[in-house]
Amino acid sequence: MTDQYGTPFSGASLLNEPRMEFAFEVRLKFTRVQNIPEMPSGAGRGAVYVDEGTFEGPHLRGKAVPNSGGDYSLFRPDGVLAFDARYMLEEDDGTLIMLYNRGYLWGRKPDTMQKLRDCAFAGGPPVDHGEYYLRAFPTFEVQKGKHDWLMRHVFIGIGERKPDGNLIRYYALL
Questions:
Q1: Which of 1, 40, 85, 155 is the most buried if burial means most Cβ atoms within 10 Å?
Q2: Residue pLDDT, tens place only, 80-105
């Protein structure tokens, strides 16, 4: 059931009862990496570029457009990685969706971020999802029509770092 705006979700959050509904998940693969280490600010800047990916959920399904963007993360001196990603998704019906994704990744233990780097860049073992915080707050741009509900909701993402990229599940705040 949808409302007058074509919203595919039911229900609503109340002030003291926030509700979320699963929207979709994105699985991205990054194989190309560049880094600017040790800037005068004490931070570093990294870039990973979208090579391929897929997304799917109850209301969307498609693929990431290869080479349409990437993630330009700031490696802060406090051990937090602040990511700033943008890339294009293409829904199976041909609709293009611009995804702007910001968020944070940090380890719950002192050695977790090194373990994540080893997993991603040195063939190290996977890191248990409970050892780190990977959260996103995305926004979208899409043409008027079937999928413009993406531009009327607040979403949060909960992610998992994979050896070759990320898996992020997005939930709409109703």
A1: 85
A2: 999 999 999 999 999 999 999 999 99
